[in-house]
Amino acid sequence: MSLDDDTSSASTLTLLDDYAFKSDLLIMMSDTGPETNDELKRRAKAVLRDMGSFITSVGPHGVSASNILDAMMEGSEKAGLSSGVRYAAAAIIVAYQKGEASNSSASELTKLAQDWLLFFLWPSFRPGHSPQSEISTPTLRASEVVADTVPATSRGSKFRNLISERDGGKCAVTGTLDIYKGPYPPDTEGREGLLHAAHILRRSIVHEHSASNRIAGTIDIIKHYTKLPEKIMDDLAGIIDNPENGMLLDSVMYDRFDSYAWCLHPTDVLHKYTVHWFRHVPLGLGNFTEVQFQDHSQTGIPLPNPTFIALHSAVAHVLHLSGAAEVIDRVYDAFFDEGPTVPSGKHATEEDFRVRLSLIGLMTNNHQLPTNPLGIHAH
Question: Does position 252 have pLDDT exceeding 90, yes or no?
Fold first, then answer.
């Protein structure tokens, strides 16, 4: 399913799957369009100011739809992802215009926020349990199916070995040395520790469940949000385990990178970044403020793709600016941890998940959710 494709697919996308909306969006966000990014952003901001009090949450009292819409623009800008600013601003304007004739602009904007939450933020933030994976969704591309036939252990070992070789066997941020590569000479600078090969873009974006067909919607959003080349988007499942999508991190940096506690901001120097923390900086890590990637192997192993880093950064900013990270965490902990909430071997229905979304209000008001509020028992 693509914005460029006029065929419909069974999915939970409520607005981004609308042909008229897609057509108008592609025209407005075109690089040859008459308006600059700043002009589109100003128009989108005006829409949100005018409509803010009428836009509902995604789920009664759930994540603020207005906050998600605004954060998609602001997060992109903070990450240096200009294509994301243009895409988000244009989508907001087109959603507003779509509802003008029927006085339903607020509803269309809420639908847009819901699509971004379920098909972009959730699968990026919480691997393995995105809600749309439990509902009928678009069909996988052949490249995605083929990529998953490669044994995971083979992929993981090759991925880690190449990244370790490229990054010199040390954490890209802290310089922590791989404890398994020692012992090191006494005068070697840096401490030793466990190192992990971190995916910049999570594998869950393209490999979630073997029976899941929800991936195309997520890929389509990423395609237009980042304007990555077609050859990359067409083989994203194959590229996800390539060195350009990874970096070597020590255990502390790895865990916090995976939870979007920090990200990398671009500088004027290619492949040089500053470290940006969203939460308190862990003890002892305050001095590590810059990262300069280089190929220590000198064999041509690709460095991390700057657009992949920008996308991770944008997602991190959107999650924190919108408040979606906290709500997703609470939904995940209430419904997916400590055992299944749907019968074993079965999937929740769309209606079931909407019930779950309707309970988000309890979470945002700091109320305690029952462990199994739907009364469904596993067998």
Answer: yes
H or E stretch covering 248? strand 246-250
Amino acid symbol at 310: A
- Long-range contacts of range 31-40, CB-CB < 8 Å, 24 or more positions apart? 37/82, 37/85, 37/86, 37/89, 40/85, 40/86, 40/89, 40/90, 40/93
| pTM reported for the whole predicted model | 0.80
CA Rg value for the chain: 21
Q: Which residues contact 150 (CB under 8 A, 6 or more apart)?
A: none
Tokens of 356: 């779950």
The dihedral formed by the CA atoms of 311, 316, 317 and 318, expressed in degrees to the nearest 10: 90
Instruction: Report the C-alpha gap between 276 and 286 in whole angstroms.
Output: 11
The answer to whether residues 1 and 218 touch, using CB atoms and an 8 Å cutoff, is no
Half-sphere exposure of residue 99: CA atoms within 13 angstroms, side-chain side: 20
Residue 23 has what pLDDT? 94
